[in-house]
Amino acid sequence: MKIAQLKAFVQIAECQTYAEAAENLHLSQPAVSIAIKNLESEVGGKLFNRTTRQLELTPEGRDFLPVAQRLLRDFHRAGDELKSRFIKGEGSLTIAAMPSFASSMLPKALGEVKGKYSNVTIKIVDIVMDKVVQHVRENRAELGFVFEPENLTGLQFYPIFLDEFILVLPPQHELIKSELIEWHHLTQYPFVAMNYGSTMRTWLDKKAADMQLTLNIVAEASQFATIGQLVKESVGISVVPALCQEQMQERGLECLSLAHMGFSKAVGILTKTRANLSTPAQFLLDSFLNKKRS
Q1: Which pLDDT score, from 0 to 100, does residue 173 have?
Q2: Whole-angstrom Cα distance, residue 48 to residue 40?
Q3: pLDDT score of 170
Q4: How far apart are CA 279 and CA 103, in angstroms?
Q5: Neighbours of 294 (CB within 10 A)
Q6: What is the pTM of this model?
Q7: How far apart are alpha carbons 60 and 46 in whole angstroms?
Q8: Per-residue model confidence (pLDDT) at position 261
Q9: CA torsion angle for 129, 130, 134, 136 (degrees, to 10)?
Q10: C-alpha distances in angstroms, 155 versus 8, 15, 192, 258?
Q11: Is 5 exposed, middle or buried (0-12, 13-18, 19+ CB in 10 A)?
Q12: What local confidence, expressed as pLDDT, does residue 259 receive?
């Protein structure tokens, strides 16, 4: 059953003549007649009684008329709502992001999205890196803001900047006065790390292994905020992304650059491969990429 057949049926039922129905539909009378014959063939019976003087609905046709009218209304309403989503930017946008990114760089960008698409509803899922990847992979988020994952199967990564990791120390720590900090200096102090098995921890362990060093890990946590609090209480020192610098400094911690130690990772936007993004999601992606190019 096609929309064109429903339109022809409703028009003929309301006009009671093929000529007027064809004129309203901007079709020829033979085209309208064929549409009705095909519809009757599909449903298995006549919908109109035809005489030389008038055209009347059969009992089955009368029962079907309100159904056909409702279907057409729903069809037109669905089309109007879809157009509205494109024109007004209505709908929803779900984003998964690392908490450090969600609280620093993302709010301003989302303000631009709301300025362009005021009717869109934005949902931010601020979770650890590994779960950001999972959310995008499982279509639970259109975009993910994350460090570049090791496994990009089925995913597309758009780098936007390089994050240099930093050393986080409690106030008055003796390393603050050091002119140059090397990796072997970090092994001399208790160390607070991300949980074993996390991507961040894997990177840290690999870096230490490459340097043939062993960190004295005394505590683990799944969130950088927790790591910052542990450092503040002098449980140990830590290495975190520069994205976390503001929240670490808000806790009164000292943050020292480790750029000379070659420990950096690309931060970017994650989507499904060949994803058909919503209009607001595409706008947000393009906004970050255009700023990178400029």
Answers
A1: 94
A2: 9
A3: 96
A4: 23
A5: 5
A6: 0.66
A7: 8
A8: 81
A9: 20
A10: 46, 55, 31, 30
A11: buried
A12: 76
Contact predicate 254/178, CB 8 Å: no
Question: Which domains are assigned to the chain?
Answer: 3-88 (1.10.10.10), 94-294 (3.40.190.290)
Q: What is the pLDDT of residue 87?
A: 62
The dihedral through the CA atoms of 111, 112, 116, 117 has a sign that is negative
Q: Around Cβ 117, how many Cβ atoms within 10 Å? A: 22
pLDDT above 70 covers what percent of the chain? 96
Number of H helices, E strands in the chain: 12, 11
Q: Can you list the residues of the chain whose pLDDT is less than 50?
A: none
CB within 8 A of 102, min separation 6: which ones? 124, 126, 145
Q: What is the DSSP letter of 140?
A: S
Res 19: pLDDT: 86
β-partners of residue 239 are 167
Mode of pairing for the β-strands spanning 155-169 and 254-257: antiparallel
Residue with tokens 């209480």: 233
**Across the chain, what does the average pLDDT equal?**
90
Token pair 């989507």: residue: 271
Q: What is the per-residue DSSP string for 20-44?
A: HHHHHHT--HHHHHHHHHHHHHHHT
Q: Which two tokens stand for residue 13?
A: 């039922």
Kindly provide the residue ranges of all beta strands, DSSP E only, lying in 37-142, ordered along the sequence. Answer: 48-50, 55-57, 91-97, 120-126
CA distance 206 to 68: 66
Copy the structure tokens of residue 151: 């496994």
Rounded Cα gap, residues 178 and 241, in angstroms: 21
Give me the residues paired with residue 220 across strands: 193
The predicted structure's pLDDT at residue 239: 96
**Contacts for 275 with CB less than 8 Å, ≥ 6 apart:** 142, 156
